[in-house]
Write a structure and sequence with these properties.
The protein has 194 residues and is mostly helical. The chain is 48% helix and 4% strand. The chain contains 4 helices and 2 strands. It has a two-stranded antiparallel ribbon. It is flat and about 90 Å long.
Amino acid sequence: MAAARRKAPTQIAPQTIQEATATIDKYMAMQATVDQLKADADASIQQIEGARDAMVAPLEQAQKELFKQLRAWWAVAKDQLTEGKRKSIELAGAIIGERTNTPSLKLPKGVNQEDFIEKIRAALEENANPYIRTKLELDKQAIIKTLRKGEDDPMAERLATLGAAVSQADQFFIDRAGKREADPELVDVEGGAA
């Protein structure tokens, strides 16, 4: 048995410009509330993060000092504690020791990556390719620009035969037109004149 089709809910839309204006006003008021709530939350988060950072900074500095002390102690005590069989031990609820870090390429002093690439190319010639990575990616803006030239441009025609096309559509939007004016202040003009 086929599943029953669900009927989409009825969409209520304004029928007059007055109704549309009222709906836009309601929408923009909601947007202003959303923007204010997000701004308040961001300010609160920044305040909380600032307080956290102020409390964490001295602790992290103290940790660095303790780390240096323990590293110096480990260099002297590790052989006795591990009997030369291990690189680390469990002590006081922590694992302390040494581990091998991830290998990294060290270039000759004063040589940057671009210069080293040229040195590899010169020294290894056709055997340099396994050591040099080339990243290929589409220049989408250049392709769009070429496609917009149309049939007059042979490259545009070739790109189009490959299936490339410019995709662009109109999308409905609602944006704030400018800063929202504050509601006017009501002033009693009858009794205030001197």
